[in-house]
Amino acid sequence: MSKKVLLIVGDYVEDYEAMVPFQAMGSVGIQVDAIAPDRKKGEAIPTAVHDFIGDQTYTELRGHNFVINKDFDAVNPEEYDGLYIAGGRSAEYIRLNKRILEITQHFFKNEKPVAAICHGIQVLTAANVLKGRTLTAYVAVGPDIELAGGTWQDIPADKAIVDGNLVTSPAWPGHQEILKEFYKLLGITIQF
User: Fold this and answer.
1) Catalytic residue among 50, 64, 119, 175
2) CATH number of the domain where residue 55 is located
3) For residue range 62-107, what is the model confidence (pLDDT) as tens digits?
């Protein structure tokens, strides 16, 4: 039986953090439903490309259009084996959506696999699901994790941390690690 994962995004999600997991999970047979608040299947959201060019923080450029493939209002979290929360600027405002928080809380309450990357962890802090958890995020989100009762770890951007049903990575260079660990949490073994 194929696994089914819910991918949460929003306007100006980080381009790689939406596109890469969506395509990578699909390539191994996972059904990925991408949702964004107030969006319907077939609508596109804008993405943003983040990069470091020598400033104190990242720069943001307009990315691609990312097409939503599931109506937000039609989502039933009971139907999904796992949750993946993409990062980027979208996380700071989608975490204000009550339904996003309820969906996120469902996965923690039922101990289903959850992956969150970069600023996507802001959704977890707002959902109040981090007490006693050890995780990582983009460095600017570290204080939010601590305030939410979690323990933030500053790790290289190409790494990931697993704590129970939760896997996190600081940024898009960590795709290989976060996806590898997320597949394990989903019970997927890939052999070549």
Assistant:
1) 119
2) 3.40.50.880
3) 889 999 999 999 999 999 999 999 999 999 999 999 999 999 999 9
